[in-house]
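Final report, closing paragraph on structural work. Over the funding period we assembled a curated collection of sequence-structure pairs, and we close with a single example.
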Amino acid sequence: MKWKKLGQIFDPREWDLGSDIVGYAQGPQTLVFGEFVRVYFSARRKCGNGKYISSIRFADFDKNFRNVIRVKNNDVVSPSALGAFDEHGIFPMNVLRLKDAIYGYTCGWSRRTSVDIDMAIGFAQSDDRGETFRRLGQGPILASSIHEPFLIGDPYVAVYEGGFHMWYIFGVAWKLYPPSPTPERVYKIGHATSVNGIEWVKEEGRAVIVDSIGDDECQALPTVIKIDALYHMFFCYRYASDFRTNSARAYRIGHASSSDLSNWTRDDETLCIEPSGSGWDSEMVCYPHAFHIDGCINLLYNGNEFGKHGFGLATLEH
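Its predicted structure, as stored:
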């Protein structure tokens, strides 16, 4: 099996995402309907201090992804309360259909002083086919704890083997890498289970994916899909420092497989997607999302500058 790239399918510069949006379409996540596919993503708007706040939007595609049917240009999830865990935005939001309801698992960002950010995972629900989501409350459903003391984020939730499973990231350290004066975060992929999708039990502090580029490898945005008898996880990984402008240290897409959803064998060379020789994804590939549609398995992903130029599509060839 191998991925076949189909190219860039959404460029935020070509669409009206709202008068205050300055671009980006990060962390694409799908919700498949009978006649179309909805892709949720995070756009950005600038706030008064020159920093960004992430807001959820969506684009509806026909099922072959050749045409954009509609783009929502206002917030899918309303702004949070002052001082809340997601005060400075949501990126990403993973969605899960359960009977007549649609669950949204949000990664909320809030800025800090000594380090850049904190993150936690929130919950919202839609009763209008994914047009809008209402929060369960102003607090998170999964956050830092004694054995995962830093940030928590990037949820991917699925119902497998009769239960809810969440793969997410947890911070293991903030570190200084001279000559940069700004601390950088190091984070790994963890696992939690639930009986109702809201109350979760974490495997505290257990990184489920081994490192391949050293202890300070950063792993982000897992997505898990079943192919034949195995579960396959796609995620992105990078070096902890000098990754923003040095393409050799920027995000790449990794892969691991499992037969039991707990023990994972990493093999980045299998089912990998490399940066292109030129164009929108020539410097990095990141934030993958795998999904089934009409008997096919597809992968959405971002490219250069962490999704500034939108997202592309690849399909799995058996």
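The chain has one helix and 20 strands. The longest strand covers residues 163-175. We thank the funder for supporting this effort.
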